[in-house]
Structures are given as structure tokens and as C-alpha cells.
Design goal:
heterodimer, A: 328 residues, alpha/beta, Glucose Oxidase, domain 1, 2 domains, 7 helices, 19% helix, B: 1073 residues, Rossmann fold, Carbamoyl Phosphate Synthetase, Chain A, domain 4, 7 domains, seven-stranded antiparallel beta sheet, 38 helices, 40 strands
Amino acid sequence: MSLALESGHLFSGEIVGGSYAGPVGDVVFDTSLSGITELITDPVYAGQALVLTLPLVGNCGVSFSDFQSGKPQVSALIVSEISEVASNFRSEASFLAVLERFGIPAVTGVDTRSLVRLLRGLGPVRGVIVPKGGSAASFEAPPPRYAGERRVYPAQSPSAPVVTVPDTGMRRGLARRLNELGVTVSVYPYDDPSMFEEETNGWLLPDGAGDPTGYDLAFVRRIIDTGKPVLAAGLGHLLLALANGARIARLPLGHRGANIPVRDSVTGRVAITSQSHGYVVTPTPGAAVSHVNVNDGTTEGLRWRENMLSVQFRPDDSLLTAFAAMLR
Amino acid sequence: MPKDNSIQKVLVIGSGPIIIGQAAEFDYAGTQCCRALREEGAEVILINSNPATIMTDKEIADHVYIEPLTVDTVRDVIRKERPDSILGTLGGQTGLNLCMELAEDGFLEAQGVRLIGTGLDAIQKAEDRLLFKQAMERIGQPCVESIVVSDVESASVFAEKVGYPVILRPAYTLGGTGGGIATDGKTLAEITQGGLRASRVGQVLVERSIAGWKEIEFEVMRDGAGNCIAVCGMENIDPVGIHTGDSIVVAPIQTLGGPEFAMLRQAAFDIIETLGIEGGCNVQFALHPESFEYAIIEVNPRLSRSSALASKAAGFPIAKVATKIALGYRLDEIENAVTKTTFASFEPSIDYCCVKIPKWPFDKFVTAKRTLGTQMKATGEVMSISPSFEAALMKAARSLEQGLDSLQAPGLKCLSGEELEERLRVVDDMRLFVIAEWFRRQETDDFTPLLDHVHAITKIDRWFLSKICSIVRMEARIERSPLTPELLLAAKKLGFPDSLIARLTGTDARSVREQRLRHGILPGYRMVDTCAGEFAAQTPYYYSAYGSENESVKKDRPCVVVLGSGPIRIGQGIEFDYCSVHSVWALQKAGYETVIINNNPETVSTDFDVADRLYFEPLTAEDVESILDIEKPEGVMVQFGGQTAIKLAEPLDKLGYKIIGTPFTGVDGAEDRKIFDRILEENNIDRPRGAAVLTREEAFSAARKLGYPVLVRPSYVLGGQSMLIVFNGDELSDWLDKFTPDDGRPVLIDQYIMGLEVEVDAICDGDDVLIPGIMEHLERAGVHSGDSISVYPPERVPKARRETLLKVTRELALALGVRGLINIQFILRDGKVYVIEANPRSSRTVPYISKITGVPVVDLATQAALGKKLPELGYGYGIYTEKNHVAVKLPIFSFEKLYGAEISLGPEMKSTGEVLGIADNLPDALMKAFIGGGYLRAVTRRVIMTVSDGDKEELCGLARRFQAVGYDIYATGGTCAALIDHGIRAKTIHKIDDLKTNEEESILSLIQNRGVDLVINTSAGGARSRRDGFLIRRYAVEAGIPCLTSLDTAEALLRSLEHRSPGRLDVVDITEV
């Protein structure tokens, strides 16, 4: 089997996991060195074919507790090598078995470095999995969509403050971390208006997949109008910006990895952050820039108002702690 | 926070001689540091006693002091140079300890010198066991249950409480010196005693054993503003219990899930934050293999061996960034030298796998215990890079140069199943090969139970074992199935060399290569770019990968490939890296594009900004050829990378690649005894006579004819291995019992001429030679030149003899067709000059002779190799004008690290490093060298003498002189009687065998209680006396008491002591010599 790109390039390998052949949506890469289970189950990668630069994948098998959503979200996985053995005390299934169970096709044995070097020059490009010798009929894939879920992650204390989340792609790890910080997390499918009926101390606009301009922003505006504290991250950061009338632009490369340095404009401190996105908010009057990318100088965080934290990256502990404090 | 402009003049302390636990990595770190300082406009003063380093070059620092690394000397340098700052975290443990001593006693403050980079407080917190534990407790970071003791009693109380085994680690030592695992009260007492002595502060840490846990390291950096990054995470394949320097290490981390990885990374950040590190730091964790329980093993608040490895594995110049942090920069202000578009605050991402394997010296120390534990024993290491773990492991294995091209070790084939099973339990240098052989013998396809079995015994993670298994299964596949192009490619992707595939298919390596070429199966060269391909990078740093595109870009200029010298080992040390790097620089100056191939992560040569392109690859004919196929160079430089490089002259010559400089025929002429003898004969050059014999009878008859003593060695061994001087038929018989080869290869017997040994390095341009300087050895011939004290300029070589040396050197160099360097060893006796050995390549004396004479030896040799004539280079022919300064090169040994190793000097080289003493007269230069070598630390002024019968006469003369300079003499029976006979006061002490309990002044108690400064011991005679001598020497070494095994060394020491008492000597800036 091969991965064919819209650009006409072909990368051959062996297919394992799901037996799907057909369009797989945007082909994107991630340079993370660990936490691959977390990565493929992160809703932010929903409907995209993910290329891993880490050459040896699945060494530790899979622990379902590391899932960031109910299932692997990627449309396909492009890797160099998947481990035969699953060697970790927490492993519940081999990486391969999980791909099979969820029908995720993985092309292995690919020269992923050449692919990444190509992708970084191409910009956004779509792909198709084709049988050997076959050719791509169409690159049209359904737009990446993450259904969202209704779920409550309760903090230990019954009197804990509640944050409500319109689920564009909430990672479970984030919900659990907020629980640890003493916050109950109440998640609704993002288009479910009943979330506004619940008593809440604040809002979290989480990360998510796909083109931010494809969302109906009504729910974001409604959230802004409540005047309550808001934490927006990743896609949420883009949606908040759009709802506030700002513009966004597609980045030539995108930021995808676990090693992206971001400077806090106030303290000057640099944090190494995780990100997976292809857009950036263009500078906007009315919002103070709170964070900047050290490498390319792009905006990584905006302060729309005193009780609104909005960042392009996965919020780290200092942000979450600050947000939790706002909720009290 | 921009640069701190109050930093103008910085003192950098190096790490001293190469010893086990402290090798070339600090030359790499120090050199990078000096260059970074100068890049920022600071004036650099450097002090290091090791002349073989690049950091001590005039081109690297503004003022260079090759002086003993003692507090007194550093103080003198500070008083003379008046630096405003000192940087102590780049010179290993040695540099760190010196800095701390200077800071603690207030000297730095009094002199107005600031300790920049990680501060005193942070260093103390990280280094002092108790302070560290308290700091970690405050932030809830778990340490291993432990106690710091200063006596054996407390150690044993603790061990009873937590249960045996316990691990013992002395404070403030390097490479785990004096540490170990105690399984019961007796071993506890022994190791604790040793450890207390080894520790600078007399402290030993006793801790609960966590052997078998995973060992994980993070190289982290923190700037003055508190920003942190993790440069690289590394996993030891060998679990806790084996020193990380003796472990096979892989990067990135392979067997941790996301949560464990994140937990340890965060812990590393919390630790350096609380310590207040400003620069680089190494944090080692033990992680329970079946839970989230972890413990901090160690934190090194400085650059380390691991940071050199991490730098090379991730392509991130840690030393440079640490230096800039010390100058005040923040991580996000320092540009990433690789991508030039990102900053140092970007964490490197890795899209390949790196494997490091240590290089152990057990081939040189046949009596040393090969088992591995908490005491590091490796002298060096190799690293390899590949997309697959299997290929990285295979490449590293063949980079070790131990005669193996794969995980197949012929020696293990003869073991029975039970023996092999037993060997799995032994942790030694061969374990990797034992595991592979064990898998090879199993006749089953279901490998899960096999992994479980080996894991249960070795505690090595199943994932690593599965990869060894996968290599073994590929061997079987190749053996059993036809070699299709698909299979061939699959084998190459697993790192199989052509030679192994040929062996498995019953053909030869050339045929395999031809088959590969027919099917286009060639390696591509991928770039190490710190960002996994995310950004375009310019780093000229490559590794091979089959089934990959080629990223290596050749420019239009003609290019020359320089072969490096591989792992640091005894006999081939950092000197050859010095030569390789200087050759690269000379080639660049001559307008060539340069390529270097090497596999040693500790060195300057594998810094990606030295050559125009760096290939991090094994130095085998196949690996080098693949690179040459792509590079198509003008030629290959093989004369600067030691034996590793020069032995590739033959295959490369056969392949039609041009050897630059001395052609292969010259190399062959010097190596092949028959040709060499003929050349000497044709030129009427004298040599010790010799014979090659096949039987015992022939051996005895040859020895009689040549006359005892004779030098014996097997013909197939290089570098003095198994060489011995035998004085009579009995000794010859003993030796033949041990070493007569049973494969019909001859034994070489040579006349042993006891004379003055002299050495020259000469540059030949095809017309004539230039000798930068003649070096004279203080020990008489018979001690390996690398283990002798070497003196420049010579003191006992008269003018006429120097002319003869020049003449012979010229004749020999021209006869061999040398273009470039040649090293020749001579013996002078009775007015005659004998040649014992000639090597048409650089030698270990090149850096030292370059520095002291000011002749840029490697530069001239490189130009001569390229075809330039010496007169046009401005240095002319003949013997270069002698300098007024005297330089003494003193060998340094690492015997205390190698339990059971024989320390007595002989024709086989044993030293790991060297120090230099420079002064305007010989006795002072000698004294500096002896101080630098740690020979004059103690002040009891007592010496133990116990020598062989043949040496007694000569000893008496020395003893009288020792007495005259104030020494009390203790001697064993026979030696004592001889001394008293000559009217010398000496006290009798009992030999090992005659030990009586509670004997106040037995040889053992004197040594163990450090009641003496010095032991002089020479061995010979019967088995008992040999064994006694061995034990005395070992006890001395383990007690840290200098032990001299040659009377000539003792004489040299006397000469310095007679000149003046040990004390302060003027420091010399070699840039002014």
C-alpha cells in the first residue's frame, strides 16, 4: 500500500491496522518523542493522517487510560516502524491490536523523514491510501469533525467550582488535571445549547480539529456575553478570536510538536509547549498579546479581557492554576 | 537579559589527564566553551595539565597554562592573570572540585573573581549528599533511602536496617571511584573503607539497592531567568546497578509511556529549579519497572560524559549554550546553531535512534576483573545513529574495533548450553553478545517466553531484548533463504554489514556489495538537525540509513576525507583526535572542503562545526567506502586517526581511492616485518636482531643465539599485547606455555637492548625531513613508550648522536615514501643507534611536541601530504631549534578503577592519559609533572622499597639519595638486608605472606593506613615473589599511594626532590614560550 499525496508524491509501505483504502484528509506531522497514544486519540487530530517523526512507535503498547478521547481520532497513521512487542507494565494491548480494533489504517516502513521534509515545503496537503500500483481517484475526505460528548468529570469536593466545556475536542488529560486543581469539569457537545442552562463558574473553550472558520460562532459569543471567566486553548483560542472580530491566517507550516517555546510577554519566562494547529491569530487591536512564539514571533496568547485567558498551546500548569483561581 | 558586560576575562579550568571516568568529553566541552567565550569577546585564560587536548591550543585560548591542576597552581594563575570571572562547570569533576575549594575558602572573593554559571550554592547543594537530600525532601522529590557515613560502623547499622544488598558511593569522586555493592557485612566493611579514603571529604553514601530498576537520564538546561529545557532523554539498556558510563545507552528514551516520561521530565525541571542551576545539568533517575515509583540516583551540576553524548545524539551544543548562559544570556536569546531559525529554548526532537556502547580496556588487562558494577571501567565509548534500533546497535558494535562485525562472537560458540545459560547471569563486557548467542541457540518461533526468560535474569527491558532477537532472527533468515533483493535490503536496514551477510551465505563481502549495487541498495545520508525535519537546517552532520533519500550535499570545491580514531582506548587516546581536528583545519586553510568520519561522541572531531561535513559512522572499510562513493573525494587522509585510520589504508588503496600522503606501500613497509627489515638492511640501519619461530625448540635456540634478555610476542598481536621481556629460559618457558599460538602462526623473539630510548616525530615532504624535537625517555627501553616519562629537549643525547638520528630518520622516511608524519622509536647504546619501530602516521607525542616547540606539526604534515615542500612552509629541514624550556610528559594510569589489573610497567601500554610539566630546567619540569600526576600529595616522607634481586644493587644508590632528601625507608626482607649491607638505614617490614595480625608496621597496614608516600616495587623471580609483588602493587594502588615499578621513574622523582622541596613553582603561559 502507499500514501499518495495531492502533490503527486507517493510513499510506499505496508499497511497494518485497519484495511481502509481511500482519502484520509490532510496529512500532517508531529515531532513528539513520547505520548503517542495520547497523540492519536487527541481530538485535535480528528480526521487527519498523522505522520510521526519518532521512528519507533508502540514500544510500550497501549494503556487505555492514556486515551484523550473515546477512540483514536486520526484517519490514518504514517510511521517508520511499529513495535512487535508491547513492553510496559501498564500496557493493556499492543499498539497494533488497538489500531486493528478501531480500524485505523497505518502505513509502516515509510521513509517518514523524506515525507516530513516534503510536507514542510508543501504546506497543507491531502492524502489517499492506495493499493500498490493503484492511483488516487479522489482526495475529497469528509471534513474533520469530532462529535463531542456529554460527560462530567467531578472534582473531589462536592462544592468545587464548575467549568463548562463546549466539546470541540476536549482532552481527557486536561479535564483530569483540572479535577486535581479542585475544579469540576462539565462537558457538552459544543452545539448542545443545554450547556447554557447549567449553573457554571466559567467556561473552557478547548482545542479541536479542523478549519476554525467552519464553526458557527454563536455559542462562543454567548459564552463571551456571560461575562464569566474563560480559558481558551488551541482551536478555542482561534474561535474566541474570530468571535471577537479578529482575523486568523493559515501558517505555512503549522506548529505541531511537544517542543515549541513560547514567551510570556509579562514575565519574560519561556515555556516549552505542546501544540497541534495550522493557524495563527493576526495582531488585533483590543487584545493584549500575552504570549509570543520564540522561534517565529507569531502570537501565541491574547488577553481579551481581565478574566479571559486565551492561548494557542496546550495550557500548562501555571495557566490552569491561574484559571482555577478565577473560578473561585 | 542580554550579555553581562562586566565579564571580560574568564578563567576556564580543564579536567586534567584522561583517566577512566573522565575522558575526551571535557576537551570537547572546554574547547566549545572557550570558542563561545571568545565569540562573545571575552579574553580566555585556560589551565589544564593535559597537553593532548585541543583546548590547550594557542588558537583556542588567549593564555594557556599547561600546569598541575592543584589549588595552589590555580591560585598562582589567578594572581598572575587577574581574571574577573571563573567558569568551573566545564572541566569535569576535577574542575568543579577545584572551583569549589577556591570559592569555599574565600580566595575567589578576595581576588574579586566571580564564579559564573552555576553558582557555589547550587553546586554544593547538588554535590553534598546531605544537603542534596534535604533539598529534594523539601520539594518532595524522592531519593533512594540512604545515609551518609564517615565510618564503617554507621554503614553497617544502616545496612542491617534496610537489608542487604546496599550500594556504596563515596562523595566527590568521579566514575564512582571506590564505590560498590555490598552483599554482606564483610564486603560492606571493605568497600566502605576504600570509599572513605577515595572521598575528598571522607564521606560515603550507603543506600538501599534498587538494582534492576530502569535507569533514565535527562540532560537539562536552565538559564538565569529560570527557563528550562530538556535537551535529551536517554535510557540505559543495562538497568540500575551498572554505572551509566559502563552501560549501553539509547536515545531517545524507548520504553516509557507518556505519563512516566512526562513525570520524570517535570521532576528534572523541578530539581534544577530548586538547586538553582545556571547552565547544563545531568539528572539520573531510577524508575521502578512496574510502577510509577522512582528515585533520583544522581545529579551532576556540570557538563558530563552524558552531556557530551546528549549533545551529539541531539545535535545540540550543550557546552556552548551553557557558556552563553554563564555570560548572562537567556535560552530564548541564544540562536540554535543548527537550524539558525530557532533558538536554544527549542527542545530538540529526534527522528532516529542513537546507541552508545562503552569501550573497555580488558584486552590490555587480562588479569582485571571484567564484571561490571557501580565502578566505571570503560576508557571510552562509541555512538551510532540509525533509524532503527537494530542498525544502531549493529553499527555501534562494529565501531568498537574488537574484531567483531556484528553480535556474533566466535569465542562464545564453544560454550555449552549450560555454560551459556550461566554466562547470562554474569554482567560483563560480553553480555550483549552472550544474550545474542543465547537467542541464537533457541529453536522456537515463539519468542515471548524467551524474552521473559532473559528478562528475568538480566532485568533488561523486553523491548531491547526483542530487538536483539530480531537481529538473530535475521541472521537465521539469511542463512536459510535465498538472498533476494528484498531480504538484502531488510538486512541492511537492520545494520548488517556485507561481511556478515557474506559469512551467512557462504560468499565474500565484495560479492554482497556487487549484488547490492546491482539492485541499487545503497545507504542515503540523513541529517541530524535537532528538529526531526520540521525546519530546513544547515547542519553538516550525517548518518547512514538504508531505504532513505540522501541529504548530504557536496559543494564544488575539491574535498578530502579525514578518518578519525574511534573510541578512546589505552594506546589510542585523545591525541589522535587532536591530530584529526588539526588536519581538518589545515586542509580548510589549504582551500579544501573537509569531511570527517568518526564514531566517538566524546570528541572535538565529532563536533559538527569542525569539518565541513561530519559523518557519524563506524570506521570499517564498508562504512567508509559507502561515504567515499557519495563524496568522491580527492583522497583520504589516514595518517592522523591512529591505528584505526591507518589500517583502512590497505582496503581503501585496493578499492582505488587515493591515500593522501604516505602511500599504502609505505604503511605496509613499516608494518610488515620482512619488508621493514629489508629496508633497514638496505640503508645500513641497525636494529635489534630477531627471529620468528614456530616451535619451543626453535624459540630456546633463538633466544640463546640472541642472548638473554629477549623480547617475546605473538606475531598476530598489535600494540604490545602479551609482550614480555624474559631474562632466562625458565621465564621463556612460562611465557611459551601461555602464549604459543596453536594455529601455526609464529612467535617473534627479539634481542632486548637495554639502552636509552629516544623518540622522534618527523615530517617528510619526499625530499627531506623536519624533526620538531627529539624526546628522550627516562625509563630504559622495555617500558612502552606511552608509559615512559618523556623529556624534551633530550638531556643524554650528544650532538653527534642527534645528527645520526636525523640521518636515520631521513633515510627511513624516504625509503618508506613518507609524505607527512612518521614516528620512530630508537634505542641508543654504546654509541650506536638502533631502530625499534617506525610508524608512518601521527603519534601520541604530536600534540605535546607541537605545543612545546611551537611547530604546528599536524599542519605542516598535512601540507606535506598534499605535496607542499617544507622550506616553502617556513620551517625548513633538519632538527628544529631547541627551546629554552624543558617539558616533561608523565603518563597517568587508571589502575584503581580496574580491580585486579597488573600495574607493573612493561612493553605493553597501560596508561590512559598524561600530564605535562613545563619549566626552565628539568628538575622543576619533573616536579610539576609529578605534582600534576598526584605523586607528591602526601607528606609522611616514608617510602617502601621491595625490589627484585637484579635491581638491589642499583636501588642502594637511590635509597641513599632518598634518605638524603629526608625519607624514612621501609623495606622487605631481602631488599632491607641489601640496603643495610650498603650502610643505609632501613626498617624491615613483613611481606604479604609473613603477615602477622595486629602487626603495627606490616607492609599492608602501612599502605592501607597511608603511612607511606611512595612504594617502589620491581618484580621478577619465582611465582611467589611475583604474586607478592602483585599484591603489594595492588594494595598501593587501591590505597591511592603512588607505586613506581621502574627504578628510572624513582630516579627522576629524586632528581626533582633534590632540586627543591615540593612547593610552588612559577607558572608558564605557553603562548609566550
